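quick one before i forget lol
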Amino acid sequence: MTFQEMPYERVDLAALCKVYETLKARMEGAKTAEEAAALLDEHTRTYEPVSTMMSLSSIRHTIDTEDPFYTAEEEFYAQEGPAFGEKVTDFYRAVLASPFLKELEKEFPPVFFKNIRMDAQTISPAVLGELEEENKLVMDYQKLQGSAQIEFQGKVCNLSQLGVYKEDPQRQVRKGAYTAEGSFYQEHKGEFDRIYDELVKKRTAIARKLGFENFVELGYLRMGRNCYDKKDVAVFREEVVREIVPIVCEMKKEQQKRLHLPDFKFYDDPVVCQGGNPHPQGTFEDTYRTGIEMYRKMSPLTKDFIHKMDSMHLFDLIAKKGKMTGGYCSYLASYKAPFIFANFNGTSHDVEVFTHEGGHALAAFMAADKTRLMECAMPTLEGCEVHSMSMEFLCWPYLEGFYGTEAHKARAIHLGGALSFLPYGCQVDEFQHIVYENPDMTPEERNAQWAALDKKYRPWLDFDSVPFYADGAAWQRQIHIYTDPFYYIDYCLAQSVALQIFRLMEEKGWQAAFEQYLAYTRQGGNDTFLGLLHKAGLENPMEKGSLKNVAREAREYLTAHQKDLD
């Protein structure tokens, strides 16, 4: 069955609430550990089809945010979902209160119980109304992003389609594209500010009702941070400032010299090579087919994985009107099928998103038949991002298929981008800590904080008085800040681990790196992030000094391949 043929039916959440009330009562009345364990299995069988229908609705809505049917479905889940979530959490509370908990902890992964203890702190009947309102605000942001229709050079572009012009070899075209994008955000400034202001205040109100001082601690619990806290993250951010920012500053000076520019503006930042960055050869279909062939050649495992993805049409890849920006991998549990969403626009981003989301999809494919508890199929999100960001490096031997003779440039650009991403990701994270610790800030005060963080994390940027960007409002482009608070640092932690995979490729070869990748990925979500790393022989990126070696190795590679970018 293809994705397009998969039937959809609205989930009867009211009926399911009653089902979970019964499951909770049965767990409370269980007479043996075996009976309690069987109820956990029944929970998985009950929840999987629910998850599948809700994923189908969400995917089809993001493919076309203007589709009234799936917009209505998402509005229904936004409104009714929190009450159902509370019933599932009530079931978890009954599991934790079971007299057979010690026996269950021996039969199921301990991390499951750690995670549901955290989950139990994130919801209560007192906040269901606020959770519904939060969900609706997130939908408002997604719809506003998807509505962009920007006239540029005789074409009408959405935000993803405008990306190709941001990498144009001609400086004035790049500046024009960024100015056009900034004008869209300026035109809708009131709406973007309103949505975020209400989100911050709503999340703060939820946190306080649940007994927290502010949203930061609740945000960490929502993210499943089960083995580190904000102090550890702060150590990581400072390591990035110390080890990575100076390297990126040197890289940007070399980039300016390579481009023969008298100065270096922010709209020059994306263009690494004189004459423009390498782009995938051929059509969008050619990029897709090259990606399919890459995974077929990589290993027997990836061959089986990509055959399923291709034969079931589990992709929607091309940017179009009404489509949400960004890229993601979802999972359709009843079909044991990952789904990849992207916005191809003809730039190197197309290859990066295909390899990145392919790593997520491969991990989901590997976990499909090996996990008894659905909650342990995948790790927490920073752990999942290791799957994807490491896969981007593991695809290096196949880049000739996408870029031809310019593949060597693409590799150097990708590695340089991995380094320069780390400061930006840390900037997003510190900004959110500041905002949620000071929830009464005005939009202008938030913009001022973002501008100050630009100087700390990305001192090479000069915004050249371009509206929106020069105003310190560019954070509004980052979807995660609105939809998934505190998610973004997960990419940075994972990128640091992915750089370890890159280092292993350089020192011991591709096969050794792939085997270590599989040693990590095969574990699914059966341990904490740090536990998974330890068992796979990978280093904790939040320890002091942890970035020094990977930064040095990456810098040495870029220095040795400097001529590749000329």
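fyi Residues 3-108 form one domain.
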